[in-house]
Write a structure and sequence with these properties.
By secondary structure, the chain is an alpha+beta fold. It is built from eleven helices and 21 strands. The strands form five sheets. It has a six-stranded mixed β-sheet, with helices on both faces. The model is unreliable at 1-16, 141-152, 154-187, 318-324 and 426-432 (pLDDT under 50). Residues 163-188 have a biased composition (Low complexity).
C-alpha cells in the first residue's frame, strides 16, 4: 500500500510546474501581441527575451555601439543598456537596479520581467502595464478641448500705437552653433592654484600600441612628449601630478582610470592625436583640435574617433589588464554621470586656451564613449591635440616648441578650472 502511494507522490512531484502566463502587448489600437514569459534558474525568476520584446514594441536590440560588451535595447523611445550577469540597467543615462541580472544564452538575451512591468513604464515614455490583465500598453496623451471663449462685450476700439519709423524689425536669426562661454574679464590666466590639487595626466597608447601613424609621427611618442611637458607645466603652477605612464609602455585602458582613482586624482587629462577619416574629401588637409568628455556620441565622426581610440584594447593581455566586467562598467558609468557637467566645463576651458596657441582651427567640445574615460571617477577629458594625418599639424605637435605651447595651454586651463572650483566649492568645479 505504501509503495504505490510513494510512487504516486513521486510522479506528481516530477510533473512540470505550470509555465508562467505570457504578457499581452498592445503597441497600437487594435494590435495585440503575445510576449512569452519563462521561469529560469534555481530561483525560477521570470524573464522575457529581449528580441521578442523589441519585436512586440517595434524596437531594436543589439550590441551598444560605444560599448559592445553591453546589450542596447531601444523601445518606445527609450534607450536601455544591459550587462548580462549584472543586476543593473542604464535607462536614458540613469542607472537603475534590477530584480535579477539579465542572462545571455548563446545569441539570445533574457531580461527580467521587472524591466517590462516596472522599469520601462516608470520611465514615462508612453508605456502602461496593467497588472490585472497582464497587459503592456502604449498610449498617447490626448489634449482636452479648450473651453469656449465667451463672446466679448462690444466696446470702444483701443487706439493702436504705431512703432517709430526708425525702430527696425528684427529678422529671424540664422541657426548657428552654440558659442563657447565668453572669456573671463581676467587678462592673464592664473599662474598657480592656491590649494593642494592632484591631476592625473594620461599619455595615450604606448608600447606595442603605437596609436595612429601619419606624416612621420607615431601617436604614442607625441602624447608622451606632451604629457611630460604638461607634467612640468602643472608642477610649476603648484599642482601635483600623477602620470599613468612616463615611458614607452602599454597600460590597459581600464587600469589608467584605476590609477587615477587610487591616487585620489581630482581631474583626468588624456592626451591623444587625431586622424582624418580616409573617406573625407581631401582628408589630408583636415587639421585642428577638439576636446571630448564622456557621453553618448552626437555624431558619426565622434563615434569613429572613439572607436579608433578604443581599439587599444586589442593590445591588452591578461598580464596587462584586470579585465572589464560588465558590472564594473555600469557602476563606473554611474559615477561618471555625476561628473559629466564638470567634464564638459573643463573641456570648454581646454578648448579656449588651446585656441590661443594652436595654428589649426578649433573643432569645439564634443562627446563620445571613450573607454579610457569610463573608469576615472572624477571630471575627465580627452584632448585630440591635432591631426597626425595633416603635415602642418604633425610638424607642430611633434616639435618641442609645439609640445610646450600645447602643454602650457592645457595647464592654464586646468589651473583656471581648479581656481574656480576653489571659489565655488570643491564639489562644483564650475566655470560660471
Amino acid at each position: 500500500m505504501i509503495a504505490p502511494l510513494l510512487a504516486l507522490l513521486l510522479a506528481g512531484a516530477a510533473q512540470p510546474t505550470t509555465p508562467p502566463r505570457p504578457i499581452v502587448v498592445r503597441p497600437a489600437p487594435g494590435v495585440e501581441r503575445s510576449l512569452p514569459v519563462e521561469a529560469r534558474g534555481p530561483s525560477a525568476d521570470r524573464f522575457v527575451r529581449a528580441d521578442r520584446l523589441a519585436q512586440a514594441l517595434g524596437g531594436t536590440v543589439g550590441p551598444a555601439e560605444d560599448a559592445p560588451e553591453l546589450v542596447r535595447l531601444r523601445v518606445a523611445g527609450l534607450t536601455v543598456d544591459l550587462a548580462p550577469e549584472a543586476p543593473f540597467a542604464r535607462v536614458e543615462g540613469e542607472v537603475v537596479p534590477l530584480s535579477t541580472a539579465p542572462v545571455r544564452d548563446g545569441e539570445r538575451v533574457w531580461i527580467p520581467l521587472q524591466l517590462v512591468t516596472d522599469v520601462l513604464p516608470r520611465a514615462g515614455h508612453g508605456l502602461l502595464y496593467d497588472e490585472e490583465h497582464r497587459e503592456l500598453r502604449t498610449f498617447t496623451a490626448v489634449a482636452t478641448a479648450p473651453e469656449p471663449t465667451p463672446k466679448p462685450q462690444r466696446q470702444a476700439p483701443t487706439p493702436v500705437t504705431k512703432a517709430p519709423e526708425s525702430a527696425p524689425v528684427p529678422a529671424p536669426a540664422a541657426a548657428k552653433p552654440m558659442p563657447e562661454p565668453a572669456p573671463t574679464t581676467r587678462t592673464a590666466p592664473p599662474r598657480r592654484a592656491r590649494g593642494t590639487h592632484v591631476v592625473v595626466v594620461d599619455a595615450g597608447h604606448g608600447g606595442p600600441d603605437s596609436g595612429m601613424h601619419g606624416s612621420g609621427v607615431d601617436e604614442k611618442d607625441v602624447t608622451l612628449g606632451i604629457a611630460r611637458q604638461l607634467d612640468a607645466a602643472l608642477r610649476s603652477r603648484g599642482v601635483g601630478v600623477v602620470m599613468t605612464r612616463a615611458r614607452d609602455t602599454l597600460i590597459a585602458l581600464a587600469d589608467r582610470g584605476r590609477i587615477a582613482n587610487q591616487q585620489h586624482g581630482e581631474l583626468f587629462l588624456s592626451i591623444h592625436v587625431n586622424a582624418a577619416n580616409p573617406s573625407w574629401k581631401n582628408a589630408a588637409a583636415y587639421r585642428g583640435f577638439e576636446t571630448y568628455f564622456l557621453a553618448d556620441a552626437k555624431s558619426e565622426d565622434a563615434r569613429q574617433v572613439a572607436s579608433r581610440e578604443n581599439e587599444s584594447v586589442r593590445f591588452e593581455t591578461a598580464a596587462s589588464s584586470t579585465g572589464q566586467d560588465p558590472l564594473g562598467f555600469i557602476l563606473s558609468d554611474m559615477a561618471q554621470n555625476e561628473h559629466q557637467r564638470e567634464s564638459s566645463r573643463l573641456a570648454t576651458l581646454v578648448q579656449r586656451y588651446l585656441t590661443k596657441v594652436h595654428p589649426g582651427p578649433s573643432h569645439g567640445v564634443k562627446q563620445a564613449g571613450f573607454k579610457v574615460l569610463i573608469w576615472a571617477s572624477m571630471p575627465a577629458v580627452l584632448v585630440e591635440v591635432g591631426f597626425g594625418t595633416n603635415a602642418d599639424d604633425a610638424a607642430f605637435i611633434a616639435s618641442a616648441r609645439g609640445q610646450r605651447a600645447l602643454a602650457s595651454a592645457i595647464a592654464d586651463a586646468t589651473v583656471e578650472y581648479l581656481s574656480r572650483a576653489e571659489r565655488t566649492g570643491a564639489g562644483d568645479g564650475g566655470t560660471r
